[in-house]
Automatic annotation (TrEMBL):
SUPFAM superfamilies: NAD(P)-binding Rossmann-fold domains (SSF51735). It comes from Suillus luteus UH-Slu-Lm8-n1. The keyword Secreted does not apply. PANTHER family: PHOSPHATIDYLINOSITOL-GLYCAN BIOSYNTHESIS CLASS F PROTEIN, PHOSPHATIDYLINOSITOL-GLYCAN BIOSYNTHESIS CLASS F PROTEIN-RELATED. Pfam families: adh_short (PF00106). Keywords: Oxidoreductase. The keyword Nucleus does not apply. This is Uncharacterized protein. GO terms for molecular function: oxidoreductase activity.
Amino acid sequence: MKYSRLDFLIDQWSTLPPVETADLSGKTVLVVGANVGIGLEASKHFARMQPTRLIIACRSDAKGKAALAEIERETGYNGCESWIVDLANFASVTAFADKFEKEGGDLHILVMNAAVVLPDYQCTTDGWESMLQVNYLASSLLSLLLIPKLVAAGRKSLTPSRMVIVSSVTINWLIPAKEVKTSSKPLEMLGSEEWCTPKHIHSRYPESKLLNVFFVRALTDRLQAITPLSVVAVNPGFCYSQLRRFWYEKPTYSPVKIALAIMERLMAWTSEQGSRQLVFAAVSGQDNEENMKGGFVSYARLVEVTDFVLSDEGHRMQDTVWNETIDILKGVSDKIAPIVQDYLVNI
């Protein structure tokens, strides 16, 4: 799909439909990255649908408790729990998954919303560039580790569970560098400090969001046809949020900082409006589940993904990224290999 900047402007200035609603009684919903912005607003919408459990995953106990209080105050829902996970630390992710295995029960809706945007190269304690790890590798790790819980819930309820991965409209204007597209290990290249020059690091956020779409489509291709789980990517639109806070914390003005301020003033949605896209991806389309599988939700509708993703070149890169992702994550958790073997098929 060719999606121009004019299309983007038209969509941002269009009237959004009201938030989707569903009966979530008896369901467990997990929102990762829920203490601010669209994650918090999506959690409020889910709370109003009265799930049996709503778990919000945040980086710190203080932020989680503050979000918990706000959700209860604005919705009256008292079934919300705050759990801690730091996607910049693989050990925190595996510990969270272990806790969920013991205490979480079945999982019906997973929303992977946590992300960062950084203006320069930063390295995690695990040795990866921060945006690559938080936005893609750790999100993929947790998503895979929670597949058994999602599938179990789908089988018991006789309704497919949903895994929602938040992507971005920015993938529409990204073509990965030739060196990355042709690399046998594109993630290793993207994560190296040598590659992350100022020129390349400015593309990292849309690159990570493209990787999210690759993950959704590759996972969908490999899930067994009878598996009661739908994996969906979603573009929340351009919204006011704290996602770009690191840019605003810089003491000096820059062309990027000025451009972002102007764009926000002219066209940004509120966080609540953006959160409606996450909710749509999580609860809509249950009467035509096959269409949702591997789908890309944008502006409250399923749309075709970018031409690059659909191209032969995109398919080759998607498969290469998938194989490298699984190899990396097998080294992080010994549970990845059994999950891949038991729940996915080779293609």
